[in-house]
Amino acid sequence: MRLSLLTTAIALAAASSAAAHHSFAAEYDASNQITVAGTITKVEWTNPHTWFYLDVKDAQGRTVNWAIEGGAPTVLYREGWKPTSLKAGDMVTVTFARAKDASKNQGNAYLFKLPDGRCVFAGSSGPGGSGTDNCTPGRR
């Protein structure tokens, strides 16, 4: 009986974590890449993905807050990031795949140009998900 309960608990935990994770193609449109410049308003350095929020001026001059998904913290560490690489108030340029649901101001980041001028890969799981030295998406 105890083994059965333990097995059930493990199966439920595995199913809930698998359901929480999404595929890139289900949520983002790799053919709709955009680049914006804005000011970081919030950073969430969490698993399974990091999130960066930034205020960007749209064509009408209105401020729009974008939610940009990055890779897992371990991926970003390998790319040279630290939890302190970006903080509220920093100006950045980010290239990302836009969410398929265009009503969301959301994307999955490929590249960030940091305030110090460095261009870093953002850990995207999407196609072409790596950064180049000249801060354009593509394979290294």
Write the CATH fold name of the domain at 26-121: OB fold (Dihydrolipoamide Acetyltransferase, E2P)
CATH superfamily of the domain at 26-121: Nucleic acid-binding proteins
| Span of the ends, CA to CA | 53 Å
CATH class bucket of the domain at 26-121: Mainly Beta
Architecture of the domain at 26-121, CATH level 2?
Beta Barrel
Main β sheet profile: 5 strands, mixed, barrel
Question: Structural class of the helices, strands and pairings?
Answer: alpha+beta
Portion in helices: 10-25%
Strand content: 35-45%
Q: Number of helical segments?
A: 3
Q: What is the number of E strands?
A: 6
Please trace the helix and strand order, writing H or E for each element.
Answer: HHEEEHEEE
Structural Rg = 17 Å
Question: What does this protein structure show overall?
Answer:
With about 140 residues, this protein is α+β, with helices and mostly antiparallel strands. It has a domain at about 25-120: Nucleic acid-binding proteins (OB fold (Dihydrolipoamide Acetyltransferase, E2P)), CATH 2.40.50.140. The protein is built from 3 helices and 6 strands; from the N terminus they run H-H-E-E-E-H-E-E-E. It has helices at about 1-20, 25, 75-80, and strands at about 30-45, 50-55, 65-70, 90-100, 105-115, 120. A 5-stranded mixed barrel has the order 1-2-3-5-4. Strand 1 (about 30-45) and strand 2 form a beta hairpin. The chain is globular and about 35 Å long.
